[in-house]
Amino acid sequence: MQSFQYKKVDDIASALGASEIGNAKFVAGGTTLIDLMKLNVERPTTLIDINSLALDRIEKTSDGGLKIGAMVRNSDLAHDLDIQRQYPVLSQALLSGASPQLRNMATTGGNLLQRTRCYYFRDTAYPCNKRKPGSGCAAMDGYNRIHAILGTSEHCIATHPSDMAVAMVALEAAVHITGPKGERIVPIGEFHLLPGSTPNRENVLGPGELVTHVALPALQAGTRSCYLKRRDRASYEFALASAAIVAQLQGSRFRRIRVALGGVGTKPWRSPEAEQVLEGQEANERNFRAAAEAALHGAKPLHDNAFKVELAKRTLTRALKVLSQAA
Ligand SMILES: Cc1cc2nc3c(=O)[nH]c(=O)nc-3n(C[C@H](O)[C@H](O)[C@H](O)COP(=O)(O)OP(=O)(O)OC[C@H]3O[C@@H](n4cnc5c(N)ncnc54)[C@H](O)[C@@H]3O)c2cc1C
Ligand code: SF4
To answer: Are 319 and 245 in contact (CB under 8 A)?
Structure first.
């Protein structure tokens, strides 16, 4: 591990000021960043500790939505009563991730910005375009069982690991950012980037920019939501495939539906294809399967992860069934 400076800040202005020093990085819960520093994958020269910033609240907004501070811990968010009642998909996604101890430390901002679990990214002995642009991709011809089948490029096939972000994509959340050039709001669907030829760029954050909070829109009364995750073991494991659904039903038909997939995409994966198949249609097994076929139509499996295509289809089909049968 490379030695580094440590700076604790108490307000946003100091955090932004400190972020202009050399290769500085914000540290929140540290559950991704410190691991990667120990592995020599991340090598910041300064760590800016943002744990004292007043960004640890969940507040109601004037339009009936919720504002979640970037420092709200994953446990607190998952157990918040407004989240459980209005946005169960988010609570379920959070509780399906990591372990209770990790969730007590992990934050909303850090979870959005967590980095891939690709084995080759985390081991500096291997070439990796994300870690070292232009060095190659060891996963392409290596062991790629956990890798992505949607949104991949010839330069990177790493999966985005967050469960929380998948739920937030289905909820059409907005990420609030502040930085040296001022404040801006980015729809979550545009926050994470596809790898293309620059897999080292994973999101739209510019140098020194800080996520301050995530806003959830108000949902119409009667909106249902759910998150379903498939993984190698029942807890403390990342998704092989997951599905987040947010939907309104009118009788037995879907009126409005949002679908996002996890564990299969290079970013939290919204599926407009599945939504188009379902909107206005009967909630029945035939339409669920048609939506799953549409969602995975563009999948590009490799030698070890072809099983994910059918797994993702079944996960989505099952999630739609669970949601439509909920009271
Ligand atoms: C063993 C293990 C199992 C796990 N299992 C799962 C799982 O099943 N599902 C899942 O979704 N996750 C899982 N995780 C990942 C975990 O959810 C993340 O490590 C955690 O959410 C990161 O949050 P943090 O606050 O600790 O981030 P940190 O490690 O502090 O930071 C992560 C990154 O975000 C940046 N950052 C943090 N906050 C901000 C901000 N406000 N603005 C700008 N940049 C910021 C940091 O600079 C850093 O680059 C697991 C982790 C471990 C170690
Ligand atoms: S898949 Fe991406 S993160 Fe993994 S080795 Fe290839 S370039 Fe690196």
So the answer is: yes
Ligand 2 neighbourhood includes 121 CB (under 6 angstroms): yes
pLDDT at position 327, please? 61
Q: Which residue, chain included where needed, has tokens 């379902």?
A: 278
pLDDT band at 326 (very low <50, low <70, confident <90, very high): confident
How far, in Å, is the centroid of ligand 1 from the Cα of 276?
Answer: 33
Report, in angstroms and rounded to the nearest whole number, the Rg of the chain calculated over CA atoms. 19
- Residue 309 Cα to ligand 2 midpoint, Å, equals 20
Residue 279 located in a structural domain: yes
What CATH number is attached to the domain comprising 257?
A: 3.30.390.50
Domains of the chain: total: 2
| Residue among 115, 121, 135, 141 whose CB has most ligand 2 atoms within 8 A, to mutate | 121
CB 57 within 8 A of CB 83: no
Mean pLDDT over 270-286 rounds to 98
Give the C-alpha separation, 297 to 291, whole Å: 10
Q: Are strands 182-187 and 253-262 parallel, antiparallel or unpaired?
A: unpaired
Strands 46-49 and 5-8: parallel
Sign of the CA dihedral running 265, 270, 272, 276: positive
Domain span holding position 249:
224-325
